[in-house]
Amino acid sequence: MAIWRVTVDNIKANRKDSLPTGMTVEVKPSLTSAGVEKAGEVELVKAGYKLSCKYQPDFGQIEVSGNIYFIDVDPKKILKDGKIVDTEIIRQAYQRIFVEPVVIAIGIAKELLLPLPIKMPEIKVEKSAAETPKKK
User: What is the model's pTM?
Assistant: First the structure.
């Protein structure tokens, strides 16, 4: 089970003129549809996705959508009624949505002067015990 490719087919973004302080960002990935597609003699599972970043209270949004292609999977085992039902495949898809499409959303958020759609790691620098002056 492997993801072969992630494509981006559509990007939408907007923001209002004035931005408030204390804005929150709701980031929501979703798989929208799934089916089988032939690539030469290989059967791929193609799943549509959408990454939605909404800035509350209603001050902007970023949406990135496209497709994720899986190889080496049995469509009969992982698809049902146009949806992926295998939890491992769903996990892999969501993990990849938080890689390529989120990187695009970060760039767009920077251009629109919106808060980043993910929380970046915070670095704390502390003095080690060897650097702390000792009292006599």
Answer: 0.81
Q: Low-confidence residues of the chain, pLDDT below 70?
A: 1, 129-136
Whole-angstrom distance, CA of residue 30 vs CA of residue 43: 23
Residues 67-85 pLDDT 10s:
999 998 988 899 999 999 9
Reduced 3-state DSSP string for the chain: CEEEEEEEEEEEEEECCCCCCCCEEEEEEEEEEEEEEEECCEEEEEEEEEEEEEEECCCEEEEEEEEEEEECCCHHHHEECCEECCHHHHHHHHHHHCCHHHHHHHHHHHHCCCCCCCCCCCCCCCCCCCCCCCCC
